[in-house]
Amino acid sequence: MNYSIIFKIIGWVIQLEGIFFLPPALTGFIYKEYNDALIYLLLGILCIISGGLIRRQKLNKTAFYAKEGFVAVALSWIVMSAIGALPFVLTKDIPYYPDALFEIISGFTTTGSSILTDVEALSHANLLWRSFSHWIGGMGVLVFILAILPMTGGSTTNLMKAESPGPSVGKLVPKMQRTAFLLYAIYLVMTIITVIFLLFGGMPLFDSLCHAFGAAGTGGFGIKNDSLAGYSTYLQNVITISMFLFGVNFTFYYYILIRKVKDAFRMEEVRWYFIIFLGAVALITVSLVAEGGGIGESIQTVAFQVASVMTTTGYATTDFNLWPEFGRAIMVCLMFIGACAGSTGGGIKVSRIMIYLKQVRKELMQQIHPKRIRVLKMDGKALEHSVVHSCNTLLMAYIVIFIVSLLLICLDGFDMTTNFTSVAATLNNIGPGLNVVGPTGNFSEFSTLSKFVFMFDMLAGRLEIIPMMVLFHPSTWKK
Amino acid sequence: MKIIIAGCGRVGYALAQQLNDEGHDLTLIDNSAERLQPALSNLDLQGVVGNASSVLTLQEAGIEHADLFIAVTNQDEINLISCLLAKKSSHCRTIARVRNPEYFKEVNYFKDCMDISMIINPEFAAATEIAQLIQIPDAMDIDSFAKGKVDLMQVVITENSPLHNMKVQEFSRKFNHEILICILVHDHQVCIPNGNSVLMAGDTISIILPRKKINSFYRMSNLATIREIKDVMIAGGGMIPYYLAQMLLRSGIEVKIIERNRERCDFLSDALPKATIIHSDATDHDLLLEEGIEKTDAFVSLTAVDEENIFLSLYANKSNSTCKKITKVNRLALNEIINDLPIGSTISPKDITTEYILQYVRSQNNSYGSNVEALYRLMDNQVEALEFLVKEECAVTDIPFIDLNLKKNLLICCIIRNGRIITPSGRDFIQKGDKVIVVTTHKGLQDISDILDDSVK
User: Which of B322, B347, B372 represents a domain boundary (last residue)?
Assistant: First the structure.
């Protein structure tokens, strides 16, 4: 194990976090919350200095492998969260440290589950930090480091592989740094466009920024107690569209950028993502109209909630907890499917679901024609066996973690729906579940043990389980 | 530069490794994802799985924006076709590896009609190198600069050589400052010597000298008995022996080839009527004795198996320690182990291929100013010897070397001005139009101005 390079990476992460503390500090100064602003500023400076010190240590060797990549990424996320929780505690907005940690992990992993009962009581600095953490976590902090640092050597691919979601991580261009840079450029430009559209609809700048960050990272922290229900229909629609677009595989946008529009629309995953979205909206709308809702209004609210849950964002304009059981069930299904691979969204990912279904179909054909040879294909190309295999392994690990978490959460004595959807909402990085943890509820009533289980689930879900398991596996640390 | 490499075998991988270090944008094409995997996980590049001779695959690899296309798959036809397609779909330059002797005969046709910039035949290149080694005995390795006017030669100092225990200063004086020691390997430590370094028995030195001086160097240094090589024994009858035998026979050296495959023997005897072809297993010691391994001037092991070659050369050393030995070793990883064995010079066709292509890439890389005309990797890739052509005036021209702040571990070995060879001293300087030979441990020098030390300003 190459410890020195892991230290160096963590040093970078801490320094970067120090820089990320500065926007909330600035917000604090603007809104005259001097106490909070100073805390953010001091923490920022402290992080920049201490990160720099950690980073200064000498590198024994520069090469690092998949193992180091996983460990560095998993540790970076833990360290980042541990430090990121400090401002909440120090500003006394969330005085209990585990609660603060839950909140910031929920932020970085773009989950959006909250333990706060009254969001509006938070200072502006803290509100911005919460939303900003979505933006940082959405594309990934190590991808950011890769984009700005001249880290040479091919082994950097291992960092990107560990942090970016999806069955197989491909580069857009031959160079890692340029790939990371392009991803962040697309991300930044799309965020700015969202902000402009929100401002155009009359939303204040502060609200626009927070909501754009939440939509871009597919996070879901709102700054109002009723999430987005209080805003105009136009603003809600802007958010619907932006959530949906951030759930699309970023390769799609790259293809459009380099004018390979045909290739972009040939991406099977994006097409299915679109079909699933439309299907879910249609089905739920029908069930709502059957209960006596108006068609136009239903489509608008349903589209918002479906986009919100499918991209694993978690904003709400209505309490889908009150929908008919059919609608609620579809929402739970969407939680598991999630967004596209290579987007900022969470969940199992559309592409994996497609791989699973294709395997089922292949197996079925095999039973009917035992000698038949059938190659699994995606986007017209044969799927490598290793990719299929790792998808299957991930599903198994996912189920195991889900069941163990569920058992631990059950100790708190809530009803089954709450328990099931709360684990689903955290492991898939969505935010709200049903019943107690529904769009209008929150996670404050759970015990501290449960909160730690949720924290693990959120991190495992964001990093797609394997890095966290590698980190905690004893053989990783053996010589 | 944006470079596409088709074929991720040993040469493709070695090229990718080196070009990646030098900061080029690389895309590798191979029809096996498995073969691409190591390159993808160790190097910073993109991989495309597919057939390199299909336009779609090339387009996927971004051929329209590529500057250079290198085809090194294991099939000549695919290499040629893919180069042709690459050329048709973009303005890139192309390099193809062609090893089939029948195609290789038509190399000029390919270059002219298919507009392929460079065609490399690994076996032919290796044979050329071996022929050079044989024709200039007692050198471990020899590389030519300025179209053969100047040679860089590796020599081992023996106990009884007058060079033993001699200072580099004295050495220069003795040879009238015409021969320069540019690399000294003492105890596996590679360094660029200065005037006070002392030469010891067992050291390997690289000297740079005009070809005309080779004989006088041998005479004066009394390196070993000067013995012109008149007959060569070759174990193995593959492509390298075929080319090598042609070259040696042309310069009047007798050639004996031992090959175990009957059909191959027939072919060789048909193609090389002047050579003696022995149909037998080269590892048969009795046969080697019978064929006169004890008296041969040179023994070249070129069978397909590395280990067999090493053992054959060891055996040759045992039965005839004065003969010149050359061993083909494909696997570079073995180099560290075999360096200490008395198997003479080692040669790796793949290495040579990589080196030739790199040389080309570098010279293409800087389209203005100075150019890398030739590049050689020495001493296990630890040292590079480069030949620059100074096309225009720059920061290093017309200034005496004393006043230039040169990089450490860098030596300017030779300046060729209007065909005249100058062994530079501190008062000499570079002029526009010169060819300059530089030996350094710094990697990736691109331009003559890179010899300046830019860390201190």
Answer: B347
Task: Name the residue ranges covered by the structural domains of chain A.
Answer: 3-250, 385-477
- Select from B2, B25, B42 the Cβ nearest to the Cβ of A154: B42
CB contact under 8 A, B27 and A174: yes
pLDDT for position A352 = 92
In terms of residue numbers, what domain contains B250? 231-347
Is B148 domain-assigned?
A: no
Smallest CA–CA distance, residue A155 to chain B, in Å, is 5
A contacts of B25 (beta carbons < 8 Å)? 173-175
Ranges of residues in chain A whose predicted pLDDT is under 50: none
**pLDDT(B234) > 80:** yes
- Residue B108 sits in a domain whose CATH number is 3.40.50.720
Nearest in space to B218 (alpha carbons), one of B110, B278, B136: B136
* B208 CB within 8 Å of a chain A CB: no
Is the pTM of the predicted complex or chain greater than 0.90?
A: no
Cβ contact B40–A156 (<8 Å)? no
Chain segment B373-428, per-residue pLDDT in tens: 777 777 777 788 888 878 777 778 888 888 888 888 888 888 888 878 888 877 88
In a domain, B272, yes or no: yes
Domain boundary among B120, B152, B168: B120
User: How far is the CA of A160 from the CAs of A73, A139, A156, A384, in angstroms?
Assistant: 9, 10, 7, 20
Task: Indicate which of A64, A171, A257 best probes the interface with B, i.e. most B CBs within 10 Å of its own CB.
Answer: A171
B141 falls within a domain: no
Reported confidence tier of residue B371, pLDDT bands at 50, 70, 90: low
Check CB contact under 8 Å for B26 and A153.
Answer: no
Q: Please state the domain count of chain B.
A: 2
B114 part of a folded domain: yes
How does residue B20 score in pLDDT terms, banded at 50, 70 and 90? confident
- The residue of chain A with its CA nearest to that of B42 is A154
Give the closest of A158, A173, A381 to B46, CB-based. A173
Antiparallel, parallel or unpaired: β B204-210 and B198-199: unpaired
**pLDDT at residue B367 is higher than 50:** no
Range B221-226 contact pairs with CB under 8 angstroms and sequence separation of 24 or more: B221/B161, B221/B162, B221/B163, B222/B160, B222/B161, B222/B162, B223/B138, B223/B155, B223/B157, B223/B158, B223/B161, B223/B163, B224/B138, B224/B158, B224/B322, B225/B322, B226/B137, B226/B138
Among candidates B25, B27, B43 on the partner chain, residue whose Cβ is nearest the Cβ of A154 = B43
**What's the pLDDT at B368?**
42
**Would you state the structure tokens that stand for residue A6, as one six-digit string?**
């892991």
User: How would residue B206 be classed by pLDDT, with cut points 50, 70 and 90?
Assistant: confident
